[in-house]
Amino acid sequence: MKLNIINGPNLNLLGKREPEIYGGKSFEDYFRELQFKYTAIELSYVQSNLEGELITHIQESDEVYDGIILNAAAYTHTSVGIGDAVAAIGIPVIEVHISNTFAREEFRHQSYISKYAKGVILGFGLQSYELAIQSFMK
């Protein structure tokens, strides 16, 4: 199985940015832990702060990967284009968020991705990604 993890804006700052919300570990360190734990799965990872690059990564994942784990971060709440890209591809997408977006500002309660996602996992910290991986294993 091949899964592509796609992270959106500011997630390159994990471990530094608001550790009370996002924790103190970088995503790169966490990703290495996932690769070590899930050796039977080919995991790839990309991060971009640019909306168009995220759309391109989603489109390019179609038919190459068995699924996408997508944390579009702030673009979740603003990007019709990312939602359209998820709707347009033929592989499942699990939307993940590190924080519980419903416990945060009102504007974070809207997602342009959820309607097209196989599922949504949020509020479990970095473990949200592992839960998404496990959902593909069933």
UniProtKB/TrEMBL annotation:
Keywords tagged on the record: Amino-acid biosynthesis, Aromatic amino acid biosynthesis, Lyase
Gene3D superfamilies documented for this protein: Dehydroquinase, class II
Molecular function via GO: 3-dehydroquinate dehydratase activity
Residues binding substrate: 71, 77, 84, 98-99, 108
Transition state stabilizer (site feature) positions: 17
A Pfam family assignment: DHquinase_II
Lyase found in the keyword field: yes
Enzyme superclass (EC): lyase
Catalytic activity: 3-dehydroquinate = 3-dehydroshikimate + H2O
Pathway participation: Metabolic intermediate biosynthesis; chorismate biosynthesis; chorismate from D-erythrose 4-phosphate and phosphoenolpyruvate: step 3/7
EC number(s) on file: 4.2.1.10
Job description of the protein: Catalyzes a trans-dehydration via an enolate intermediate.
Family per record: Belongs to the type-II 3-dehydroquinase family.
NCBIfam families, per the entry: aroQ, PRK05395.1-2, PRK05395.1-3, PRK05395.1-4
Subunit structure: Homododecamer.
UniProt cross-references to HAMAP family, sorted A to Z: AroQ
Full protein name: 3-dehydroquinate dehydratase
